[in-house]
Amino acid sequence: MDKNTNKSTYNQLFQTIYNEKFLSNVKESEVDAYAKKLTVIKLIQMISYAQLEQLKGLRHISNSLNDDNFSSAVGLDSISASQLSRKLRDLSPELTQSLFSDIVHQFGTEIGFKSIRQELGRIYLIDSSTISLCLSRYRWAEFRKTKSGVKLHLRIQLLEQGVLPDKAIIKPAKSADKTQMDALVVEKDALNVFDRGYLDYKRFDNYSNNGTRFVSRLKSNAIVETLEEFPTNQDSLIKKDHKVILGKDGTTKMQNPLRLIETEDTEGKPVIIITNDFELSAEEISDIYRYRWQIELFFKWIKQHFCVKHFYGLSQQAVENQLMIALITYCLMMLLKKKTGYEGPLLKIQMLLHTCLYVDFTKFVRKLHHKSGQSSRGRRCIDHEKVYNITLVQVLQGEAEHLDDLTYDPIIA
User: Fold this and answer.
1) Are 319 and 170 in contact (CB under 8 A)?
2) What is this structure's pTM?
3) Distance CA 315, CA 172 (A)
4) 268 and 341 assigned to the same domain
5) What is the mean pLDDT of residues 298-327?
6) What's the average model confidence in pLDDT over 241-256?
């Protein structure tokens, strides 16, 4: 538990962004050289708060300073929507990228960089998600005749505490997934897991030559030459375990052999996995590939619970900064989860922050760990006649305005 438990939960949530390295980067960039009120630190706090509260626009963010608690915590009495817009637009995404990297490193330091399975090493999941934009407002991100969009290329680390975004690259959606492979698949001591959108035989050869391990899924039309067949258990879901060479002679054929594993999904359909790891068992490789769905769940989570489908600015820098601050906010919540020792869903922390952001941190921790002693009384028998008679009396007495309220429930009223 953190020693500064007498501070507010707000301070505990945002104290990580006040690290010396980031403050030094901000000073060197001179982005705050002429800032009288809205500094980079304050902007990040306000946009992060907007993510937690899912505020839809800059005016909503500006208006949130009417809350005395939030105004006092962020250190601003007021700020206009136009000032927020300019700061978000002028802020270099390299700064928010650097803060994101610092927070990820701090989280790794606190947990000792332990992976979900020590015997398997560090596992990275790599994928991208496209966020659609209005073509007329975001011309710089055009990727189809009728729409624009940005693509969040992401690498997340699989941990015992859940998943943590580890590296992010934000580009217009026109760029293919595999164009960002060299930036995301870099660590040799990790097992990198990605889908068919990242298939590139030349890169696979490079990874095999430099010892970078990967697991991917093979396309059904791939040209495969079998070199050796390994034995499989008849009772296992593993149908094939072969040593193969991929590609066509003279054009795309690989120099290094890979391992092809055929298994089944939950519906009994074949899944063909390719890897350059010959040490792990076929069952372990199959299980590791199934972990890939965690990154899909991560994309779904941030799109449902953060404001990342509606953007506060129109420029590319504003969009990149907003997405990066959303990832920073997620990491800050993960740090808070680690700090409190809470092992439940992250959504509960977000919901509790909504009502207890300014309370003493020790009180926040108690509420987070509190377990309701109320037990279910089972299905209750509803006296429909009684409900009808009560409602009838209310109508006759002219007290029926509450019946127009869609949240009114006569059974629990």
Assistant:
1) yes
2) 0.84
3) 12
4) no
5) 95
6) 92
The CB-side HSE value for 231 (13 A sphere, CA atoms) comes to 1
- Report the alpha-carbon distance of residue 185 to residue 212 in Å, rounded: 8
Tell me the C-alpha distance between 89 and 40, whole Å: 12
What's the longest Cα–Cα distance across the chain? Answer: 90
Tell me if 326 is assigned to some domain.
Answer: yes
The count of domains in the chain is 2
Bridge-based pairing state of the strands 148-159 and 122-133: antiparallel
The beta-strand segments (E) located in 231-304 are: 240-246, 258-264, 270-275
Q: Please report whether residue 109 resides in a domain.
A: no
C-alpha distances (whole Å) from 395 to each of 348, 385, 390, 398, 410 are: 40, 15, 9, 5, 13
Is 87 buried (19+), middle (13-18) or exposed (0-12) by CB count in 10 A? Answer: buried
The first and second tokens of residue 196, run together, are: 């068919």
| Residue after which a domain boundary falls, among 283, 303, 325 | 283
Does residue 318 share a domain with residue 248?
A: no
> If pLDDT is split at 50, 70 and 90, which confidence band does 5 have?
very low
User: Has residue 141 been placed in a domain?
Assistant: no
CA distance 161 to 169: 24
> In the numeric block, which tokens belong to residue 408?
């009114």
pLDDT at 2: 42
Residues 84, 15 within the same domain:
yes
* 114 residue type, one letter: K
pLDDT digits (tens, 9 = 90+) for 369-391: 987 655 555 555 666 666 665 66
Torsion sign, CA atoms 368, 371, 306, 292: positive
In angstroms, the CA 285 to CA 193 distance is 10
Determine, yes or no, domain membership for 211.
yes
Residue 274 sits in the same domain as residue 214:
yes
Q: How many residues does the chain have?
A: 413
- Structural domain boundaries, residue 19: 9-96+313-369
